[in-house]
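S.,

Sequence below, as promised.
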Amino acid sequence: MARSFLRTSKRTSMEIGVDSFAAILPDPLTGRLPSAADRMADLLAEVETADRAGLDVFGIGEHHRAEFLDSAPAIILAAAAARTDRIRLTSAVTVLSAADPVRVFQEFATLDLISRGRAELVVGRGSFGEAFPLFGLDTGAYDELFAEKLELFLQLGDTPHPTWKGRFRPALSGQGVFPRPHQPRLPLWIGVGGTPQSFVRAGTLGLPLMIAIIGGDFARFRPLVDLYREAGMRAGHAAEKLVVGVHAMGFVAETDAAARDAFFPGWAHLTARVGRERGWSPPTRQQFDSMAGPEGAFLIGDPATVAAKMLRADEVLGGVSRITFQMSTASLETAAMKRSIELLGNAVAPIVRAAPGQGTRQD
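The prediction came back faster than expected:
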């Protein structure tokens, strides 16, 4: 069954937002970690700032690691919903493979009620593997788990009384799944990295695509985006329904140098930590500056620089409907993070929205 999860098929200006993993990082001056409670309070203040700055969306990731506080994104988003008025609230991403789709649906339907129709989800398989042993799941069934649970989640959007049977969850025989969301259907994006099969799956289902581009350059993803669009059209979905979004490292300051100097310490700290687990070479400032340069995928700089790179991504990927900035790897005090969000909403967004071909924004 073809499903449309889009609010409009008309070309509008690019949606702009922020994603956070609720990273808890050492103070760049003292080396001390903030308390988890203080970091959570700062995160909610960041969502409020994004709402006031007129950004379109704020996402909370899902990890099960000591350096991130986002293991329960729906709870954080619900707290944010009570403190905001218009910004859309999404996961970034929900690790659906390691979750019960019924429970995820209930959580986000509840969030949708609290926010009066501002909830969304990006679902994926997860770039870290901690959730699988934590919840007793076999990583050998990595792809099968996601495919089956996505199928069930989509059926939950169709009916409150699903009849369904699979391998990894007890069958459903018409039990009621409540509450139902405020929106007719919860908007759902498929989060992908660089696996071609994931792009094809999203296109075949006719679902919006959110690409995590955390290094390299945007252009190298164009063949995969084309693969997504081709799969969607072969499956009978209209071209305008095959929507592409980008999640990228990003930070805005008054100058390019200030933005790079602010973001680099946190990026290097987390990249080195993950790299030690995965056998990567230690990160260098030269690598970072290259990715923050004109051809790199880091959206880091002053408002003009960042806006130009966003428009370049839109061009080289054949049209991007949403870009979200992963800012939470910056080792910064709350005031600097809020300033970056304000610049994104008040200085970057007007440049992007006024660019030729961006259409008219629809709230």
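The two ends are 29 Å apart (CA to CA).

Coffee later?
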